[in-house]
Amino acid sequence: MNPTWVQHLLVLGTLLGARYTSADTAGSWCYEDPKCGPETWAALPQGHCNGTRQSPINIITPAAVHNPHLGVMSLAGYGDAGKLTSMENKGTTVYVHLADGLHLSAQGLPAVYTAKSFHLHWGQGADQPGSEHFINHKRFSMELHIVHTKNNLSKDVALKDPEGFAVLAFFLQATANARPSQHWDSFTQHLKKVALKGQQTYLDGSFSLRELLGSVNLARYYRYHGSLTTPNCDEVVVWTVFPDPILVPPGVVTAFTSTLSSTDSGARSQLQNNYRPLQSLGDRQVQASSTLRPEALISLLISTAAIAWHL
Ligand SMILES: *[C@@H]1O[C@H](CO)[C@@H](O)[C@H](O)[C@H]1NC(C)=O
Ligand SMILES: *[C@@H]1O[C@H](CO)[C@@H](O)[C@H](O)[C@H]1NC(C)=O
Ligand SMILES: [Zn+2]
């Protein structure tokens, strides 16, 4: 058999297998219908959505604690376009399956984490943003989540470990004068092939994760412990949120908000506003990475310099 076909059969097997695993046993939930929307998630049986360490949160940057041990995130294998195997419309997001070989490590993480998939959250067009996390009360156009498990654990096993998952969160911001990105254009061109819930398409190596991330500085991030942002909202995630957005032309954002449907028939069912509302921080602490200087310290230095100047 032609090796490409063998690879496709393997991917197909993985996709079919995934259909029947516990990832889909979270009961029925949705974003926009009040009967199954986020306000109802806390009551889902076996769920954790009513917990005290939930995500997403509003990150207040002056309140973050500077941690000099949080160094640059090292992403190995993320530049390999061949690792992005297929794209699927899950009805609640667009989901990209990743092959083995993408590894995340950094000082401040308890283990090496393996990337399994990524997906996005968005609002309603380029003017109505839909990120999940906020930075200083600001919401961005979209949010990209790369989902990893600790030491390549299976999802079911990782759900039992309070640090079983590491999710990297990157913001996308629609910007009128942003430089066009051939990589995001390739990504959005595939969306037409997965317009309906349940549709999937193989990827052709035209973009890698590293290319989608553009020039975001991997040393500047916030860290906190939280949850999955979809039911069952398990409190098993080490979150890393990069505050500097990936700037994209508005057309990249509208491709998501106008092409995808949340149902398998497509009728009156655009997949939009697929974000969970903010959750309270409670008694948790957000940490700032070593190169993110606390703003309070900077303003102190500036005012000290100003006083010294006057003296
Ligand atoms: C969620 O927790 C709060 C406080 O612990 C409680 O008052 C509320 O009834 C709970 N809601 C559900 C749906 O369990
Ligand atoms: C990681 O886990 C996947 C799925 O369970 C498995 O196919 C793969 O071989 C594992 N990789 C390594 C390096 O152990
Ligand atoms: Zn997500």
Task: Give structural notes.
With 311 residues, this protein is α+β, with helices and mostly antiparallel strands. The protein has a single domain (28-310), classed as Alpha carbonic anhydrase (Carbonic Anhydrase II, Roll), CATH 3.10.200.10. 21% of the residues lie in helices and 24% in strands. The protein has 7 helices and 15 strands. Strands 2, 3, 4, 5, 6, 7, 10, 11, 12, 13, 14 and 15 form a 12-stranded mixed beta sheet that branches. Strands 1-8-9 form a 3-stranded mixed beta sheet, with no helix packed on it. β4 and β5 (94-98) form a beta hairpin. The longest helix has 17 residues, at 3-19. It is globular. The termini are far apart. 37% of the residues are buried. Residues 9-25 have low confidence and may be disordered.
Brief summary:
The protein is an alpha+beta fold and 311 residues long. Helix content is 21%, strand content 24%. Residues 9-25 have low confidence and may be disordered.
